Amino acid sequence: MMYARGHPEDYNYWAKFTGDNRWTYENVLPYFKKSENFECVDELDAETSKYHAKNGPLTVRYADYKGLAHHILKAAKEFQYPTIDYNTEFPQGFAVIQNTFQNNGFRMGTFQAFLKPIRNTRPNLTIHKFSLVHKVLFEEGTNKVIGVEYSRHGKVKIAYAKKEVILSAGAINSPKILMLSGIGPKEHLESLNIDVKLDSPGVGKNLQDHIGTFIGPFIMNDTVSYHPDRDLTLSMFLDFWLRGKGVLNTVGSDASGFVSSSRAVELGEKHWPDIQIITTGYAVSDSLEKGFEKAFNFKPNVLQKYYDKAKGKDSFHLVPILNRPVTRGEILLKSTDPAEHPLIDPKYFNDESDLKTFAESIRLSVNFIENSKTFQALDARLIDTPFPGCEKHKLRTDAYYECYARHFSQTIWHYSGTCAMGKEGSKDAVLNSQLEVIGVENLRVMDASVMPTVVSANTNAACIMIGELGADLVKQKHEKSKVNENVKIDREEL
Question: Start and end of every Glucose-methanol-choline oxidoreductase N-terminal domain (predicted)?
Answer without folding.
Answer: 170-184
